[in-house]
Amino acid sequence: MAIEKALLLIADIGGYTRFMRQHRFGLAHAQDTVAQLLEAVIDASGRFKLAKLEGDAAFFYAVGEDVTPVARQVAAIRRAFLARKEELALDRMCQCAGCTQVGALTLKFVAHAGEIAFQKVKHLTELAGVDVILLHRMLKNDVPVSEYVLMTDAVHQGLEPELRQLSQGLEHDFEGMGRTATHYLDLSTLVSSVPAPRPNLLRKLWHKLTMELRSLKYVLGFKEACEGFRNVEVVDAAAEKP
User: Fold this and answer.
1) 117: in domain
2) Which is a Pfam family this sequence falls into (predicted)?
3) How far apart are CA 15 and CA 9, in angstroms?
4) H/E element holding 170?
């Protein structure tokens, strides 16, 4: 099992409120919306390699001890996310919850530097190790803003001085890891907005057609929509009735 020094990063999409189980269109369209946003995130990941898609999150890594590019790459990913989100909102032709809530979707990051082990199981390669566990524990935190990058000391020390000054310290007691010093940076300090896309009727119609085709397997029940998503709460309508 090979062990390497690496910079670890998770980009996590959130912001959806609850959906009812019988609202198949909403859930199916939410699944497709998140998939499109994750594609934009992955395309903008630069030197980071995708380790795994985890529901509504993407787990990345970059082998090596250099942690300096994390802020630059996070900013690039956020710009791509905002641009794609704006385009999805502009092209919307559906009134289901999965489509109308696009504007409320958020993006957060957790980052850590440590050691990873490459574990091969048949044709798959998984990342393992204590530092991988810590990174995932960091998703449950006490950061008081909705869009941020939360990082450990190892990453924080590699930030540019002006970004270190903008960050806020926050100690956490992560499950099974004990007390850990962390720092968070509000993403609005990196990228606040992107140029608004221009309306395009052909793009709008194409988006509608391709979304319905991609969502069909979820609408028909062949696959479970939003399965494994951490940030979509699915409840049964019957449970909501008094």
Assistant:
1) yes
2) DUF2652
3) 20
4) strand 168-174
Looking at the domain assignment, is residue 31 inside a domain? yes
Q: What is the pLDDT of residue 234?
A: 52
Domain assignment of residue 167, yes or no = yes
Q: What DSSP letter does each residue of 12-69 carry, written as one string?
A: EEE----EETT-HHHHHHHHHHHHHHHHHHHHT-TTPEEEEEETTEEEEEEESS--TT
Residue with tokens 């850590």: 112
| Direct distance between the N- and C-terminal alpha carbons of the chain, in angstroms, rounded to an integer | 55
pTM of the entire structure? Answer: 0.89
Burial of 133 per CB tally in 10 Å (0-12, 13-18, 19+): middle
pLDDT of residue 242: 42
Per-residue pLDDT tens digits for 112-165 = 999 999 888 777 778 999 999 999 999 999 999 999 999 999 999 999 888 999
Provide the number of structural domains found in the chain: 1
Mean pLDDT of the chain: 88
8 A C-beta contact, residue 110 and residue 217: no
Does position 241 have pLDDT exceeding 50, yes or no? no
Residue 235 lies in a domain: no
CATH label of the domain that carries residue 118: 3.30.70.1230
- CA atoms of 90 and 86, how far apart (whole Å): 6
* Closest C-alpha among 3, 239, 233, 240 to residue 117: 3
